[in-house]
Design brief:
Number of domains: 1
Strand content: 5-15%
Number of helices: 8
Mean pLDDT: 97
Distance between the termini: 46 Å
Helix content: 40-55%
Radius of gyration: 18 Å
Order of helices and strands: EHEHEHEHEHEHHHE
CATH superfamily: NAD(P)-binding Rossmann-like Domain
CATH architecture: 3-Layer(aba) Sandwich
CATH topology: Rossmann fold
Low-confidence stretches: none
CATH class: Alpha Beta
Length: 265
Amino acid sequence: MTEKKLADRVALVLGAGSVGDGWGNGKAAAVSYAREGATVIAVDLNLAAAQETRDIILSEGGRCDAFTADVTQSGQMRDLVARVAAEHGRIDILHNNVGMAKMGSVTELSEADWDLAMAVNLKSAFLACKHVLPLMLAQKRGAIVNISSLAAIRYTGYPYPVYYASKGGLNQLTVGLALEYAATGIRVNAIMPGYIDTPLIYKDISGQYASKEAMVAERNARCPMGHMGTAWDIARAAVFLASDDAAYITGVCLPVDGGVHMTSS
């Protein structure tokens, strides 16, 4: 029997629930980590969503706990990490999946909405790393996977400058941490999803189109492969980056986009 890639590891997945029916990136990543042998700590602002992910993992014979936390609050992150460390003794994988696509040009967006999106998309990763890195340093190993976006490096056609700015910041946070901790056994990488068909787009993006059907058709047409990706495409990349298969990879911001990053529009 082939040994599972993440056997005996503990994966803390932030944003492990889905905002609607179906498979979001965090939910698919959590289940994929568990399928590869990891004990998963599924965390979401919506406890019911985290519990749904946990129940799927448990139904497949995996190991998972579910918790709620506001990952933009340092005290809640500190307490969460301390609890995981007390119960499991370690955190081998930190998966930062929390994010939001707040629409509005700079002339329309309120300061409050700018601050909220920056907190959710960027500060959350800062706080998670702040509280998890000391544990990883003591272990002398760890893998951090940040879920960024193709919007970090190019215009994607949507009026969400705070999303561009926050995801660009997440990329540079990834690179900076990767180099700072490269000699310690800790690897830090990011995934940049392109046009992915997840419940989030129906919640945050469909309002930019005449209908949901029009959104799906246009997003499919933007992809060189002719169709959007799925949450499982992101999850498979996450498992790779978190595993020893990527032992010599750090500081990478990996497009998972069907080739969109190579196109001119």
